[in-house]
Amino acid sequence: MSRSLDSITDAAYERRRGEISALSAGLPPEASVPVVEYTDWEHDVWRTVRAELAGRHRTCAAAEYLDSVEQLAVPVDHVPQLRDVSSRLASISGFRFRAAPALVPFPEFCGGLAKSVFHSTQYLRHPRSPFYTEEPDLLHDVVGHGGVLTSKRFARLYRLAGEAAVRVRRAESVQFISKVFWFTLECGVVRERGMHKAYGATLVSSCGELDQFRAAEFRPLDIKGLVDIGYDISTYQPILFEVSSMDQLEDTAGTFWNECDDDSIAALLRSGPSRSG
Q1: Given CA atoms 124, 127, 129, 131 in this order, what sign does their dihedral have?
Q2: In the chain, which residues have pLDDT < 50?
């Protein structure tokens, strides 16, 4: 990465991020995704991270993720326009991106998923920390989430998660649906040929996460087993949940999201964690 990036101060970065966020602030839901004129340093960050991710994906990413992200064909040598990525994604799976000025609340985010809409930021992470970020940015949203959303299986799972969050009314129900989302679609791991491979967006979009995730404690994915598990989105996860196949992911998380309601989640939370894991 260019040494000139070292000269970008926190104040300059925040100012630039604010400029990009302002483009989508207050836009109506059906508005077109704004065009962003990205700077040389932003293209440099994108190229650097994509180059580093490419090698890690070959050894650390799940096969279905690799197939899916190849279909999306996101450029590696420059920052793409979100509207262009959205158009290609929509033509493949029906999902599309909607520009957001910042991280949106989970209920609003899920309301979009239920309608095959993914809220995405358009700014990039700080150039002094390109390989790990504590919050979503364009790289996370496009390479991580967009990377799997060309898969009909994953598009369905995202929609089911969104529909579940819209369907329930209690805060604790939304929180638990969010937790299942976190440990699957954000930080999910599948075992392939005896190796742990990442498919969750937080993992596959971060060099730091891919370097660290195999040091976690792995547990079989079990919805009841998530009841007493806490998580902190600002750090590497000490516990991750694995599936033996993507079919199991559908059977476990997909069935939960498809069938859950306030009463079933309340009963699950009262029953306590599973002892089988």
Answers
A1: positive
A2: 1, 3, 275-277
Closest CA to 60 of 215, 185, 182: 215
Distances, alpha carbon 250 to alpha carbons 17, 20, 156, 167, 184, in Å: 37, 36, 9, 19, 10
d(Cα 89, Cα 73) in Å, to the nearest integer? 10
Q: Which residues share a beta bridge with 217?
A: 239
Alpha helices in 25-143 (DSSP H): 40-60, 63-72, 82-93, 106-113, 138-139
- List of residues 6+ apart from 259 with CB closer than 8 A: none
pLDDT computed for residue 135 by the predictor: 86
127 and 8 Cβ atoms separated by less than 8 Å: yes
Can you say whether the dihedral through the CA atoms of 141, 144, 150, 156 is positive or negative? Answer: negative
Q: 3-class DSSP state for residue 97?
A: strand
> Dihedral, CA atoms, 130, 136, 142, 148, nearest 10 degrees?
110
- pLDDT given for residue 277 in this prediction: 42
**What's the confidence (pLDDT) of residue 6?**
62
The residues, ordered by sequence, that sit 6+ positions from 258 with a Cβ below 8 Å of its Cβ are 160, 163, 164
Strand bridging mode 189-192 / 239-243: parallel
Domain ranges of the chain: 3-271
Q: Which CATH class is domain 3-271?
A: mainly alpha
Residues 204, 147: contact at Cβ < 8 Å?
yes
* Closest-CA residue to 235 (of 182, 194, 271): 182
